[in-house]
Write a structure and sequence with these properties.
Order of helices and strands: HEEEEEEEEEEEE
Structural class: alpha+beta
Number of strands: 12
Number of helices: 1
Number of domains: 2
CATH superfamily of the largest domain: Umud Fragment, subunit A
């Protein structure tokens, strides 16, 4: 009788041990999967941050110098690139701030303005469908003006208030100052979409 009780006790203890082993194995498997998932999420988040910082910086527009194309509060995505054409909208560093303007002319080009604000590049009037009105604005450079090597001539779309390459306070923008070319607007949602080099006041 005593031997039978001992046997039952031994069997019960063995079952308990097996159950405990299974629970411990489950905990180990759960922790391993959890660590793997967290590690994957961290990797994806780090990659997203690197892409955002190095390739596709996200910027918020301040001020009115680019209205009506871009308005204060708009959130845009820029693309890191070293190639720019007339009409491209670019962001660049200036005195620890980031300004957004439109490319008007490239290195070596000659820029000239009429009193009414009509812009000429290499003696040809450029088509600017994105403007609501022209203005001579804050211009104090000697015209016609030749864009220096490795620099670009930029102007805001709100010509009456924009301080840009027409003024020596800002001047032309060196290539190393450029953050990127503005390619997409993500906010407000009602204006979600690409920022075209020829985008006018009606958003097209």
């Amino acid at each position: 009788m005593e031997k039978e009780r001992q046997t039952e006790t031994d069997q019960l203890t063995t079952e308990q041990i097996e159950r405990e082993l299974r629970r411990e194995q489950y905990r180990k498997d759960y922790r391993r999967v959890l660590k793997s998932t967290i590690g994957g999420l961290i990797t994806v988040a780090a990659a997203a941050v690197l892409v955002a910082v190095l390739l596709l910086p996200v910027l918020r527009i301040f001020g009115k110098s680019m209205s009506p194309t871009l308005k204060e509060g708009d959130i845009v995505v820029s693309l890191k690139t070293g190639e720019f054409s007339t009409g491209d909208v670019v962001a660049f560093y200036y005195n620890n701030k980031i300004l957004v303007k439109r490319v008007i002319a490239s290195p070596g080009d000659w820029v000239d303005l009429d009193e009414d604000g009509t812009v000429y590049v290499n003696r040809e009037r450029i088509d600017e469908p994105y403007l609501t009105e022209k203005a001579y604005g804050e211009t104090n450079i000697e015209l016609p003006f030749q864009v220096p090597e490795s620099k670009i001539f930029v102007m805001g779309d709100n010509r009456a208030v924009s301080v840009d390459s027409r003024n020596t306070a800002v001047g032309c923008v060196a290539e190393e100052q450029v953050v990127g070319k503005i390619v997409f607007r993500v906010w407000p949602l009602g204006e979600f979409g690409p920022v075209s080099p020829r985008q006018g006041k009606d958003g097209r």
